[in-house]
Amino acid sequence: MRFLRENPDEVLLRFGEHVQLVAVTVALGILIGVPLGILVTKVRWLQRPVLLATGVLYTVPSLALFAVLIPYTGIGRGTAVVALVVYSLLVIVRNTVAGIEGVAPLTLDAARGMGMTGGQRLRLVELPLALPVILAGVRLATVATIGTATIAAAIGAGGLGRIIFDGMDRLDSDRIAAGAVPAAALALLADWSLGRLGRAFWHGGESASGGE
Amino acid sequence: MITLDHVSKTFESKGRTVRAVDDVSLTIGAGQLHVLIGPSGSGKTTTMRMINRLETPTAGRITVDGRDVLAMDVVELRRSIGYVIQQGGLLPHLTVAENVAMVPRLLGWQRHRRRERAEELLGLVGLPAGQFADRYPRELSGGQQQRVGVARALAADPPIVLMDEPFGAVDPITRKQLQRELRRVQAAVNKTIVFVTHDIGEAFLLGDQIALMADGRLVQNGTPADLLRRPATPFVTAFTGEDRGLRALEYTTLAEVADAAGSVPATDGDTLPGELSILEAGRELARRGETGVDGFWVSDRGGRKTGYLSYRRFAAMLGEALGPAGATAGEADGDALPA
Amino acid sequence: MLEDPFSFVEYIRENPDDFLRFLSQHVQLTLLSVLFGVVIAVPAAILASRVGLLARPLTGIASVGQTIPSLAVLGLLIPFLGIGFRPALVALTIQAFLPIFLNAYVGIRSVDRAVLDAARGMGTSGGQLLRMVELPLASPVIFAGIQTATVQNIAIATLAAYIGGGGLGDLILQGLSTLNGALLFAGAVPVAVLAITTELALGRLRRWIVPEGLRPTGS
What we know:
The complex is a heterotrimer.
Chain A: H1 2-6, H2 8-42, H3 47-59, H4 62-73, H5 77-101, H6 105-113, H7 118-152, H8 160-170, H9 173-208
Chain B: E1 2-13, E2 16-28, E3 33-37, H1 44-51, E4 59-64, E5 67-68, H2 74-79, E6 81-85, H3 96-100, H4 102-106, H5 111-124, H6 129-132, H7 142-154, E7 160-164, H8 172-189, E8 192-197, H9 200-206, E9 209-214, E10 217-222, H10 224-229, H11 234-240, H12 244-251, H13 254-257, E11 259-260, E12 271-273, H14 278-288, E13 295-299, E14 305-310, H15 311-322
Chain C: H1 8-14, H2 16-50, H3 52-67, H4 70-81, H5 85-109, H6 113-121, H7 126-157, H8 169-178, H9 181-209
């Protein structure tokens, strides 16, 4: 606690950087991942290659991906965001696909029977019903990004990982805790609150689909 | 022989005490197929599961061949009792033959002996081993899985088999087939079978004895004919169904209703086997035509004349059964259908 | 230097001993931690599936543990374990424990109740039920947990370098501090290849390990 007491500004600054890094990443992840997920449910032959590619990239250890990007995009936040978005894509795309393909064929039939166009079906039926699954993906991606973002400090992206790495360098466990504990708390808080949000949408989704 | 002596089972559920089985006493004779029937929640399955101790009674005593089941080693007890459940409960990672040979394996039989036994039993339940032994459960139809379940229960040749709605999950046609198969198998192996079902037709078709349960209590226990002809309560009447009169004709045998041979004067007349149902006897008499005698003899399996039935009484039984709704045997005070 | 990261091949060729040492540390960290993880997590999962009282706290701790960033776990353990190869191994074992435990627990608990009932009714003892029914039926899920843990630990092992645990992360760390592209790539490319090939190989292996009766029809 000594480090936190003596350097509240530093911890607060890094915390802010961390949240920003995660927010930008998840926002970009959704903006790219959800449309990509929708696309591959409509253009079926793209599905396997896209899921395979995101899956392979997801497997690459984050520090390695950061390192490989440095010669091209340099050191700093830009590189970090690129890599973090790449990681978030797999989960978001996969869950979008699962959510849309999980819509009951009977429901889609009914929508078609009502005379909905493809776009209307997507907007009024498929996306609302897939929302809980997509949100579950966003939750996973957010928690994972909070973790990976700590490592991004190794390539100069700032955030709470900076404090942890500094602490490791100096073998200063107080400093390490000042970075690690807020990072852990942030991850648990994000997991919990997004979980609640997701549950709220579950019930909404069920009643909207005419369930119990 | 299995006896249940004032057996009860209570559960705690959400702070309430639920009496699943309430003071049930029952004797299940060796070699008998004893059906436990009742609506869902009547306690029939719980009653059965207490016999192989998948449930523990909270009061009362259950014995198998005189031995208290609670005093027996539970694993040994279960291995000596075959067990068949709905949808077979087959182990999906084992082949059909391995499933059938499971209990022999638990008992430590040699591999080749297990295989032999599995093949023999698959033949018995109508699944040629050459075709089915090495398949996996998921490759079988529901009816075939159920047959494997029966074969598995018989594998170690247990004297007792428990069957928990074994044919509940298959289509009606397959179900009829499986019921006939079971009768055939039972005739061959002659086990003590406790059979849980909620299908009254199945109960009448298979049961030597039927125990009807409701709300955890035993409402009536007896032969199919007992339940039809002497229903203990209106519930039994309601449960055995609207067309119970016809059922009575179908499931009551001549031997059950004929007067003892000694009580009537010896006369000529036809002799009909006692195991014929009243309905079958009616058809048979119609085929044989007029005899001029006022009744017919009823014989036992050995062909001895053991009973006599007058046409008058026979006709009364038919009339009673076929009479208008509401005038069924139960309400007719037993006058027309003598005990 | 940063201009030609692909000179990493030459770096490896010129420093085979260093490279092989780092690679071997990396593989050891991963394999040993997953091995210890299995040895601890599978019995723990069996215990949790048997003792209802333990199930909630254990699964709760495991899911919270999975949510906490791995770098934070690594850092927070330093005061207790110190630095070096063995502390890194302990930290990695904890990380391997989490997915293996959760998968094993879920796998055992999701065995069809009818199957369990039938097996119990046949007179399987507790141990036989576990060995002949529950574990084989849960094996695909348990294996998936091991696969996750292995690939995940290849990644986390790159961080071991920061607490003096060695591994290919050491090369990345050197490359970062000297902005040497060849060193960066000499660590990063092999680690990436290791992770991807492990994922694919274990995916293949999984098909062999899944009991035949559980495989989807038509494969």
